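Quick check before the chapter quiz. The format below is the same one you will see on the exam, so make sure you can read both the input and the output lines.
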Amino acid sequence: MPEVDVDPLKSLEDKIKIEIKLKSMKEAIDAFINELHALGYSKAKGFVENAKAQLFTYIDNWLKTGISNPKVTSLVERMMREIKRRIKRMGYKWSDQGAEKMTRLILLQLSSTKHFWETHWQEKMGTNANIKLTFLGVTVEN
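Here is the expected output.
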């Protein structure tokens, strides 16, 4: 997980305060949904219900994991966005089998710890940590 995606809570007190506030906000939205229903505004009620389903996904996941979800509201959406980006922009002419293998690799990379990922490649490449590659740069000549 990239360091920019880690956003741990500073204290247990903060977590409790946020959880209490989140619960009261969800209850307020539920009360509003019930009021719209009682007044007979079914389209407005449906809109608010649908919005509520996605409104707190980021906070719920963050409280559970300490990981922020940049640009999207859930870890699954983030993974799907990354798979789409890599398949469509990095390899334009994937066969079905190649796209499937690449997708599996991307899912493995995104869902694994850094240690697991490094160990996986050491086993695949047979390097046993005996080889280290270093990128020294690029020289462009006109």
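If your answer matched, good. The helical segments are 12-39, 42-55, 57-65, 75-90, 96-111, 114-125.
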